[in-house]
Amino acid sequence: MATVTIRWRRRKAAVEAHIGQKLLGVVLRSGFPLAHRCNGNAICGTCMVRVKSGMEHLNPPEDIEIYRLSGVRDGPNDRLACQARLVSEGDVSLFLPEVVEE
Ligand code: FES
């Protein structure tokens, strides 16, 4: 079991999650908003989140995620929530975009 702490604006929630779950599903279960226009197919890039800590508990980005994030992410801590999944137990902390894309 992993714990994902999600921060959006001034709010925070901690969500229990299983190994293998993608961050997008965990975030949506928290009740916080996160755009996901392409329904998790790594096409739109709207589900980008910033991982504050716990990157070691996530799968490394695959080629399709690296390609989609190229030119739009600010650093290596930005991930597509639809592609990042939990691979080990532990704590992951992340920030959601302040503005929710429609
Ligand atoms: S939902 Fe479109 S890239 Fe993640």
What does this molecule look like?
With 102 residues, the chain is an alpha+beta fold. The chain is 15% helix and 28% strand. Strand 1 (2-8) and strand 2 (11-17) form a beta hairpin. The longest helix is centred in the first third of the chain and has 8 residues, at 23-30. The structure holds FE2/S2 (inorganic) cluster (FES). The site of FE2/S2 (inorganic) cluster (FES) has 14 residues, from loops.
CATH superfamily: Beta-grasp domain
The radius of gyration over CA amounts to 12 Å
The oligomeric status of these chains comes to single chain
Structural class: alpha+beta
CATH class: Alpha Beta
Bound molecules: FE2/S2 (inorganic) cluster
**Secondary-structure element string:** EEHEHEE
Structure at a glance:
By secondary structure, this protein is α+β, with helices and mostly antiparallel strands. 15% of the residues lie in helices and 28% in strands.
What descriptive keywords fit this protein?
Ubiquitin-like (UB roll); 5-stranded mixed beta sheet; 15% helix; globular; binds FE2/S2 (inorganic) cluster
